[in-house]
Specification:
about 325 residues, Rossmann fold
Amino acid sequence: MGFEEDLENRVWADQSADGEADEVLEEDYEAYEEDAPEEDIPEDVQKAANKAVQTLSALKLALKNSRSSDKPKKRRRRRKANPFFVLFVIILILIGMFLILNSDIFAIRNIEVEGNHYYTPAQIIDMSGIESGKNLFFELKPRAARNNLLKTPYIKSVKIERIPTGTVKITVEERLEYAAIAGAEGQFWVIDRDGMVLRIAEEAPEVTIMEGIDLGESEEGKAIKVKQTYLFTETLRLLAATENMDLYFKRVYFSAAVVRAYLGDQYYCEGAPENIFKSLPAIKELAEQHYAQNIDKGVIKVGTNGYLSFNPKID
């Protein structure tokens, strides 16, 4: 039996010994190396010895890996949480949160108002029903406050925000007064650009006054009802177009098929609303020329295809 085979047999025989096999093999090899004559080592024996060393290294590594893999792993037993204890902790947390949120830390100390033009901040706050000193989370009712404000025709939209520092922010979008329709009894029905009735005034507001319109049954907070629907709708479109042109009609008088749009007390243009709408740039240019010449009386007749004619005499 050669040295290599003897090494392999002894390694497998001694695997059961904990950590001793590799030491025995090393000692045997060293003894064999010392006893062997230094001068006359055949070449085939030298190769066998080298191969045995390599085999020894491989066997040592395999033996080490097998021992490490055979060690049983310790498993930690997870202790199950007591469900009653967990429930108790949750209840304590909820009670704590309730007490904190219901404390004076979250009392309403400041109310901010943004987006208002017609109403003052104090009026907006009063109409909302929000009061200082109330709790920010348990006593503030944003939906109720929003509905209170939306009852007012001037309020188009409302946004209410809680700020944890004790502040309530009310942001409103108001409907703006756009025109007023003169009623038969001397009243003025103030409307926004969509034709919504904002209020009924006893005195003429500082907006374009519409005269000669037959009113139907109308009320605040609802769309105005008129009989000349087409002329009325086209006139609203005409007024909207003048906003970006530095052109302002003081009043508009409705007749059967045409309107008179007054730029001054005795200076106006006359024609169908759609024709006036299409000729606005030319009307503005002509009016500026007349203003430079101190002409403040007359009528600009507006026809189709941009036709304009001026008459210094008015009816």
